[in-house]
Amino acid sequence: MTPYPEILPPISGQYHWLVTGTGGFIGSHLTEALLSLGQKVTGLDNFSTGYPENISMAVDASGHPENFAFTEGSIESPETCRLVMNGVDYVLHHAAFVSVPASMNDPAKCFVGNASGFVNILEAARMNGVRRVVYATSSAVYGDDETMPKIEPSTGRALSPYALTKYINEMCADLWTRVYGLECTGLRYFNVFGVRQDPKGAYAAVIPRWIDAVRAGRVPVIYGDGEQSRDFCAVQNVVKANILAATSPKSAGRVFNIGCGVETTLNGLLREIYAVFAPGREVRAEYQPPRAGDIVRSSASVEYAREVLGYEPAVYLREGLEAMR
Description:
By secondary structure, this protein is an alpha/beta fold. The protein is built from 12 helices and 13 strands. The protein has a domain at 15-192 and 235-259 and 295-314: NAD(P)-binding Rossmann-like Domain (Rossmann fold, 3-Layer(aba) Sandwich), CATH 3.40.50. Strand 1, helix 2 (25-36) and strand 2 (40-45) form a beta-alpha-beta unit. The radius of gyration is 19 Å and the shape is globular. The N and C termini lie close together (10 Å).
């Protein structure tokens, strides 16, 4: 893995950060990076999808365990959100109902976690005088918009409950910034991948699931013909974007695409995975019908993030995959 201090912007001074979803894939990387930069971090997670071992690995790797505190709890509790935010300067909000297919099966649960939970975070931040909330939104908000690459002003109709909740989050953040003066910045993640991403379960992300299959000699499953595309973004880039979004004087009230600006088909991704994890072996795939709610083509324009935040991807697909070996 690319060492975080080599790719992250410096932070002037020590601040208190709250990372929600700290036991998750992205949350644990944010925790590790902030601690490695000498920051004070409080983590919040109910372990509905995250894992305690992710936190342990992140804290140990940072070299600064003394600066970390943890609260087990849910963002669905307004009281928990209020208590855990006491004395916090910045919030990096990554606790969420994270799966498009799961949201299709249980939309009500998705709305409670993503929409109501986010309002709890905003209100707790407002009442505790937090400087800024940086929150994870998603490329799923582009829905049926056919513009390529995706640009921030051009969104379409939602294709899943998950996508709709992320769009609602953006509207709530905009309102809390304009009406209540709470600085909020949204990061529209494209397909994030990296170490600690869970390969298990029915709704696991495609990269860890395929890596797990290739390593075990199983045939990976592709839903559709494999020519649908994504912008695969290494988690190191996401960590960098969060710190830039929190500390940039120009980012409040805005939403930015966070990806690499490279469109890769699923068939192309599978070839890359075989090249890294099973070099010389025949590339094989089992094709099944497309899944409801999935976007066909997706790739980010990162020009706006580059202009306003100074964001530049540091790790691309092949290097990111090699870091997962």
